[in-house]
Amino acid sequence: MEPQASPPHSNERKRWMSILAKASYEDLNSLWQNLPDKPEWSRIRAPEIGMVMVRGRMGGTGNRFNLGEMTVTRCTVGLSCGLIGHGYVSGRNKDHAEVAAVIDALMQRKERAETVEHSIIKPLELRHLDRRKRASRKAAATKVEFFTVAREN
Amino acid sequence: MYVAVKGGDKAIENSLRYLADIRRGDRRVPELSIAQIREQLPLAVDRVMTEGSLHDPDLAALAIKQANGDIQEAVFLLRAYRTTLPRFGASLPIDTAKMQIRRRISATYKDLPGGQILGPSFDYTHRLLDFTLAANGETREAPKSDEPVPEGMPRVADILDHEGLIELEIPDDEDGAVPDLTRESMSFPADRATRLQNLARGDEGFLLALGYSTQRGFGNAHPFAGEIRMGELAVSFVPEELGFEIEIGEITVTECQMVNQFKGSSKVPPQFTRGYGLTFGHCERKAMSMALVDRALRAREFGEEIEAPAQDEEFVLYHSDNVEASGFVQHLKLPHYVDFQGELVTVRELRAEIEAREKDNQTDDDELAAAE
Fold it and tell me: Which residues in chain B are contacts of A146 at CB distance < 8 A?
């Protein structure tokens, strides 16, 4: 079955899950350690290392083909209030997947979402954008500026 | 045929320990860490991930260390590891137009929209050994522009697309299964998706030589590097339990769009044709070679005569995998004692027969001479 595009209501969740996945574990963990009132959680699906087959398109826009796999770790947790969180993160760091799953569950809890957004999600997003921008500014410095020499006569 | 040979356990154990000993080298020299390999030999890591067909920089670095720097052996280790993991599914197709560009060049347009961005490249080095590296000097951070590279840089092929000058790459099957040669064995004629998967994990040296052969006249190639781009993009995946896509991480990829000479038909006026290369990490030579070979293998599709090795898909696809190739070549080292004994018997018999015949002839000659 071909995956469907996300329904609009899931856009927020999609955003924070993506940020949690792309964060470095060191950044995520230090913010997580500083979060007060951590919830109790239980593992519904213990952290598991697996792979996702990465697909490309012929010519960038055509039919799909399999490029190769990437390692991914996933985890599912449940909070005592019944909310369920999922973590899907590239690589093989089980703690990363579990913390991401707990934060995903917390973000669904209305009374905690704002604090967690403030103290974890937003800072991670900014750090990611910052890292990206830093690399991109180095690339931009290598842009060729062609110029034509005006002939004087 | 070879038969199991017992014995040698102690010798094998000691051989493995000797290998580990050699790997460590002179103990007075600090040991390499996985992080050092990952950070300081990034192109070796990228090659191992691409040919190992598994994106995981830490694992690739570990494999390089374990393989004493033998890249093909490291590829083998990664391939073996991937067979131990379950597959959660397939990603949505990555969109290379959304790449955060770190390098992007075109040999077909000087003033392409977005510009030529050289990025980190060996192209402009003089290939002179730099002895300051041997002196362990500090490397300064690269200069930065005030502004980053704009996002959503258009692909060169898409620019040509607008004028209809290049064949379109439009998906005509979004729901069907994507052929996967890690699940089903190859059959011929192979479709382009299978070919591209095979080439993506194929040996860089083999593809480089084949690509080179098409340029030298073995195959009908007139390629231009339409665009080469390298950078980061997010991989999106739809977990079943969620039912919507999330990004699960970011990877670096290199893409090459080769633009080749025209093909037209009664329905379509002459257009440039295309070859495509895509790799994990920064594997530019591989992406270019892959694109050349992809185009060569499309000979049948374009009604071209198949006369060169690079156009022969059985030849290319059956010999591109360095894990298989290395295994079959190196299996010659396994004991073939019984086989060889058999051959020895045969060659001795042959020689004895010839010797006997020569002796007979000699006798006949002598008798003849005596009669005269």
Answer: 110-111
Within 10 A of A109 (CB to CB), how many other CB atoms are there? 14
3-state secondary structure of A32: helix
Residue B131 phi/psi, 5-degree rounding, is -75, -10
Q: pLDDT in tens for each of the 372 residues of chain B?
A: 555 566 789 999 999 999 999 999 999 999 999 999 999 999 999 999 999 999 999 999 999 999 999 999 999 999 999 999 999 999 999 999 999 999 999 998 877 888 899 999 999 999 999 888 888 778 899 999 999 998 888 888 877 777 788 888 889 888 889 999 999 999 999 999 999 999 999 999 999 999 999 999 998 778 999 999 999 999 999 999 999 999 999 999 999 999 988 777 777 788 889 999 999 999 999 999 999 999 999 999 988 899 999 999 999 999 999 999 999 999 999 888 888 899 999 999 999 999 999 988 887 777 777 776
Q: Parse chain A into domains and list their residue ranges.
A: 8-140
Minimal Cβ distance to B171: which of A51, A63, A86? A63
What residue ranges do the domains of chain B occupy?
9-82, 96-120+133-327
ipTM (interface pTM): 0.91
- Cβ within 8 Å of residue B294, ≥6 positions away: B192, B195, B196, B199, B258, B275, B276, B277
Q: How many Cβ atoms from other residues are within 10 Å of residue B149's Cβ?
A: 27
Nearest-by-CA chain B residue for A138: B144
Backbone angles phi, psi at A14, to 5 degrees: -55, -40
Contacts A–B by Cβ distance under 8 A: 261
Q: How far apart are CA B286 and CA B52, in angstroms?
A: 14
Residue in B53, B91, B196 closest to A58 by CB: B196
Question: Chain A contacts of B301, Cβ < 8 Å?
Answer: none
**Partners of residue A71 in chain B, C-beta under 8 Å:** 54-56, 59, 85
- The reply to whether B34 touches chain A by the CB within 8 Å rule is no
Q: A-contacting residues of B 80-119, CB under 8 Å?
A: 82, 85-97, 100-103, 110-111, 115-119
8 Å CB contact of B248 and A92: no
List the single residue in B55, B158, B274 with the smallest CB-CB distance to A70.
Answer: B55
